[in-house]
Amino acid sequence: MSIILGFIATKLRTGKQSSAIYFYFWQVIALFSPFNRLSMKPFMWKVNRFLVSFIVFCGLQCSVWGQNFGWSELKDMPEAVSNNAVTAAEVEGVPYVYSFGGIDSTKLYSGIHLRAYRFNTVSNNWESIQPLPDTLGKIAMAASTVKNKIYIAGGYYVLNNGAELSSNKVHIFDPVANNYLPDVAPLPIPVDDHVQAVWRDSLIYVISGWSNNNNVANVQIYNPATNEWTIGTPVPNNTNYKVFGASGVIIGDTIYYAGGAKFGFAFPLVSFFRKGIINPSNPNQITWLGNENPIATGYRMAAGSFENMAFWLGGSIISYNYNGIAYNGSGGVPPLDRMLIYNSSNGNLTPTYGAIPPVMDLRGLAKIAPNRFIIAGGMAAGQKISNKTILLTENDYTGTQNAGHSNSNFSFYPNPANKLLVFESCLPAKIYLYNAGGNCVWEQHVYNHNETDVSALPAGLYTIAIHYPEQTQPQYAKLLIQR
User: Fold this and answer.
1) What is the DSSP string of 416-447?
2) Residue 190: which of 171, 163, 170, 172 has the closest Cα?
3) Fewest Cβ atoms nearer than 10 Å: which of 169, 177, 246, 341?
4) pLDDT digit string (tens) for 181-200?
5) pTM for this entry
6) What's the fold here for domain 405-481?
7) 55-394 maps to which CATH number?
């Protein structure tokens, strides 16, 4: 039956039949034939206005926390790119943002590439790095940083005949050496458009996603220390959990993932929010929970975490192909300017609109500080591939108390400061001061008692990054300069 219907579909696509016949034909297809993401050609079908209206209505309940996020543009990327894998790592104490692969401004299969870039958050400059070590361009990968090594997993190729092939490759990039290491153990099940998140800076969880011709329930767990994959408790074998185009994070021992499209006619989005409780004594054991929630609807959003909050940025409420055209035939898909915020302390999922520039087709968010995140590229309004570098800052990050900041090794005061800022450190450290735009305005070495004149700096909120030679991750604190 599938072969016969596929043959008829080919004839209809190449003929001049009316759109009405075309529409009803696909209704028959929906009843009798399985689908893949390539078969969903445009037809006249309107967007579900009720879902759109409902989500917009829910957006009126703006989160105060979400409103404390501000955004600004940094230096543009060397080229416009979307569906690129994005993460962050450090080189000599400086946070860098990395972009791997993706699709260029042509939005054609031939524009899917292996090019890669890194962004110095101190100098505000992008530069090319070696392309991904593969033979064909890829999209829908994900990149994760574990112990300052970057692991780029999965994705899919689009062949010149239009076929899509999921990848099982896992590349590893060393930020300090600025080069790739030999590929690590491949994914047991090739997958793309999956959820990928890191547990305790030690294990990478690859959850669900699309594998060649269907969504899968598999949870694949990679241990960089042993270069081995193990199998985690799969997600429930139903369309609420098995999706492609979802995204998520791990906070503590809990996986949170939202969004995604299910298998079926036009790949409809799923309005379901999921949690997975990891057993810390046996990280392969996961207890999966979920609930229906229309606010959780989204496709190719970027996911991040701040303190005990998980959040999702941008995306769309209609699934689409790599060119930004809806699978349901409604045409070009508009991106969202939305932030979804999940508060794990009370279980509330809240949308805020206008939080970011409208952008979708995101495959990662670079966390460069506890309260700072970077979106690199994506697809903007009108399905335009973006070259923008967007910095998001949570402006109420702790550290602005009058008493200043202190821990067992380091302190500074006063806070707020006006002219003179005093640093005291019992260990040698290097200090970087970042303004609200994410740019480093000064840096210096400190040890014992140091005094710095900040009278020339504009009033505002700053982030201090404290780097110790023996620590791979810096410490952060907020500084308020007042006049």
Assistant:
1) SBSSEEEEEEEEEEEEEEE-TTS-EEEEEEEE
2) 170
3) 177
4) 999 999 999 999 999 999 99
5) 0.75
6) Immunoglobulin-like (2.60.40)
7) 2.120.10.80
